[in-house]
Specification:
mainly alpha, Helix Hairpins, minor pseudopilin epsh fold, 3-stranded antiparallel sheet, 9 helices, Superoxide dismutase
Length: 215
């Protein structure tokens, strides 16, 4: 699902529907052995659900502050909007970026763009892995599209900062490197998790995102 679907309501707080937790397009155990069912269940039904719930609460408070013209409260709510809104946007992308039928390499225009901008798929994979490993504390590694320059770009975001809202890059592929995404299975060895996740990357989804943002 496009992140744009979830960005718009953040700025339209007067008349909006509450955010909801999206269903996964596969079972919790479908990504095993690379990501186990317990991690997926906790990650989706607990962590993502918490971001959704907190986002709805924060937006309600923001709506009230907006109606009262209470700028001080509006400003004080910005960090919670950023964190929980980003958490909802990021995870909604992340679930679709993964598939039990994933792995391998992309094809078509996306592969050509990767070769053009990174030299080879191997170089791209190495760079995105390195950026993701190097995130200090919690955050995300991303492949994004720079619309102004017409090229792919790798970036890291801290905590739940959303890629497009903080860098302007359109998100294509996000790798969650918060410990809750891997600790139960990989303990503190983040590189092992990152090595495994390439086996479940849904290149069809990433390619569709790339095609959509070029239009």
């Amino acid at each position: 699902r496009s992140s744009a679907k979830f960005v718009a309501p953040l700025g339209c707080l007067v008349s909006r529907q509450k955010h909801t937790l999206p269903d996964l397009p596969y079972d919790y155990g479908a990504l095993e052995p690379h990501i186990n069912a317990e991690i997926m269940q906790l990650h989706h039904s607990k962590h993502h659900a918490t971001y959704v719930n907190n986002l709805n609460v924060t937006e309600e408070k923001y709506k009230e502050a907006l109606a009262k013209g209470d700028v001080t409260t509006q400003v004080s709510l910005q960090p919670a909007l950023r964190f929980n809104g980003g958490g909802h946007i990021n995870h909604t992308i992340f679930w679709t970026n993964l598939s039990p039928d994933g792995g391998g390499e992309p094809k078509g225009e996306l592969m050509e763009a990767i070769k053009r901008d990174f030299g080879s798929f191997a170089n791209f994979k190495e760079k995105l892995t390195a950026v993701s490993v190097g995130v200090q504390g919690s955050g995300w590694g991303w492949l994004g599209y720079n619309k102004e320059q017409g090229r792919l770009q790798i970036a890291a975001c801290a905590n739940q900062d959303p890629l497009q809202g903080t860098t302007g890059l359109i998100p294509l592929l996000g790798i969650d490197v918060w410990e809750h995404a891997y600790y139960l299975q990989y303990k503190n060895v983040r590189p092992d998790y990152l090595k495994a996740i390439w086996n479940v990357i849904n290149w069809e989804n990433v390619s569709s995102r790339y095609a959509a943002c070029k239009k």
